[in-house]
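User: Show me a protein chain along with its predicted structure.
Assistant: Here is one chain, sequence first, then structure tokens.
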Amino acid sequence: MKYRTVFFIYLILAIPTLSYTKNLSSELESSSNADTSPLPSITQQFDSKTTPILDESNKIPCLVTIFIHGTLKPAEITFAGLQQVAADRVQNTMYAEVVEMMRPNLHFHRAQAMQGIGLAPIAPPQACSPTEKTITCKTGAHCIVSLFEEQYKKNSLIQKNRRYYTFGWNGLLSIKERMLEAHNLYKQLTKEVNHLRSKNLEPWIQLITFSHGGNVALNLAAVKKEKNTDPDFVIEQLILLATPIQRETDFLVCDDLFKKVFLFYSTSDTIQNADVFSTKKELKSKRTFTGRYNLTVPEKLTQIQMRLIKSVGKLKVHKDKPNNHTHYLAEHGIKIKHMDPSHTEFWNIQWGDAIYRPTLPIYPLPVVALIPTILADLAIYCPEAQNISFDYCPLLSEARIIQKHPHLMAAIPFLNKESLNTLKGIALQCKPADYSINDDKKEEQEALRKARKQILENKHFKHVGKKQLQTSYLSLSHKLWPNDVPQI
């Protein structure tokens, strides 16, 4: 058993590839009476400081949503590779070569909002033929866009001009690489913003990021400081999902490049705060932004503990019970059982994630699929809150918002059952007919095989001999546990 510590060291690196009872009671009652629709208009969530306003040239506001994926999980990594990652010298390594072989493989794009390298528009899902069973028509990016549009279409006041993109980067666990990718994002975003303006559109930019993709986005502020000039754009909303918070980038959240920032985290996410390799200023990463002697957490930052309620005790729920009640979760002493999201459950659709739990209350959806509704409701019920817990109970079609300082609580209607079932149906329909989660391991092993061949043939890797390649984790595990190889 003592040798299995090797397995846990690998996991740390591999998996991240995560009623305001008194003061607000009257406000909640008036809000419930005025509008009980599950999805308020996105225009309602823009405050007076961030509302897109037509400029003198009468440009049309355009909602631009950009998804940025996280670190990629390699099939395996050598012990020497772990040292190279810790030293932030990942280029020209076996680890980097394996990830490079995996990155363009469309198989890994199927269950998450990821496409090729760089800033790439997501083609409208309806552009794909419904009878065509190709990978191109079944990417995770198309699925996430469909889920967003399903929520947006219920509102007549929402901006009709909406564009979706992904920003693909190499996915390496490296501080240097994330900074280099931020330079690429800055350059390509500037180009696209100017292109949209040439078409009489004024972009309102929203970045939705996962894991270390959030640190790539935060580094945009560092690029801005390097250039020592004002960029051609601002980020109206930066959404960080399960992003490891590190001293190398946490202070960048204060930059005025970001108008509003949301951080979603979960205490069941054991990966977000376990990055001991790609941080140099701390022992490991953290879940939340915290102040220190030279850093004050800005008011524009809202940190949200994402919670999912699996069951509610002391309350009998009947099938014919109407879904417009807003007080059940606000009852004192009610027994609640949570099942909070883990790291990849923030981002991956269930059928493409081997460790997604089938008993998760929002199965098969990832948390990112609910972002439009969550942000709209937060803007209505607690627009100024900085630290809150968002407890969503699909069973009751309600959510409980708990403000931590000062402690206040509110129960609100959230995604009625019909709306939730529609979203779940969309996610399940996106699964390609020929897809199998078991193919992931095959594709990863194929990338590993190609990487080994490439390294042995490449003159830049002559120092990597066959003997070193055979000291990989997988080879070692075969020796230690010939009859029981750990499955990663």
